[in-house]
């Protein structure tokens, strides 16, 4: 039997969101209790839907969504402003993260994953 993985990290571009969701579904089957999942994507809607699924499933805790936005700045004496050229390096997207707390069959994970929080009933 396969041991499973302790973490699952998926980074997707603008056009691969459906492929990323398929990879996520396969990867979650192999994620061990106490394991972390992190998904980066440029589109909010698919990640927000997955965030809702994680929260309602009861199998994940610390489900969080972070929005990223960075902009390159030009810093000169007495004036600082964003770079206003077409070549400006903008980075934006969303990161969804969560910790798995329960296995496939609903077994107790407290012995398998030290530090993992158990869900409340």
Summarize the structure.
The protein has 121 residues and is of the alpha+beta class. It is 23% helix and 40% strand.
Explain what you see.
The protein has 121 residues and is an alpha+beta fold. Helix content is 23%, strand content 40%. It has helices at residues 17-30, 44-57, and strands at residues 5-11, 31-41, 60-71, 73-76, 79-82, 90-100. The strands form two sheets. Strands 1-2-6-3 form a four-stranded mixed beta sheet, covered by helices on one side. A hairpin with a 2-residue loop joins strand 4 (73-76) and strand 5 (79-82). The two termini are 31 Å apart. Residues 108-118 have low confidence and may be disordered.
What is the subunit arrangement here? Answer: single chain
Overall body shape: elongated
What is the beta-strand fraction?
Answer: 35-45%
Helix content: 10-25%
Major pleated sheet: 4 strands, mixed
Task: Tell me the layout of helices and strands.
Blueprint lengths: L4 E7 L5 H14 E11 L2 H14 L2 E12 L1 E4 L2 E4 L7 E11 L21
Parallel strand pairs: 1-2
Antiparallel strand pairs: 2-6, 3-6, 4-5
Sum up the structure in keywords.
alpha+beta, two-stranded antiparallel sheet, 6 strands
């Amino acid at each position: 039997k396969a041991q499973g993985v302790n973490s699952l990290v998926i980074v997707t571009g603008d056009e691969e969101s459906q492929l990323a969701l398929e990879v996520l579904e396969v990867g979650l089957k192999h994620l061990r209790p106490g394991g972390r999942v992190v998904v980066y994507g440029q589109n909010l809607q698919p990640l927000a839907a997955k965030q809702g699924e994680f929260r309602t499933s009861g199998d994940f805790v610390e489900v969080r969504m972070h929005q990223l936005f960075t902009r390159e700045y030009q810093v000169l004496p007495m004036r600082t402003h964003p770079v206003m050229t077409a070549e400006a390096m903008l980075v934006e997207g969303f990161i969804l993260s969560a910790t798995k707390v329960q296995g496939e069959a609903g077994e107790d994970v407290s012995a398998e994953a030290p530090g993992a929080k158990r869900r409340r009933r």
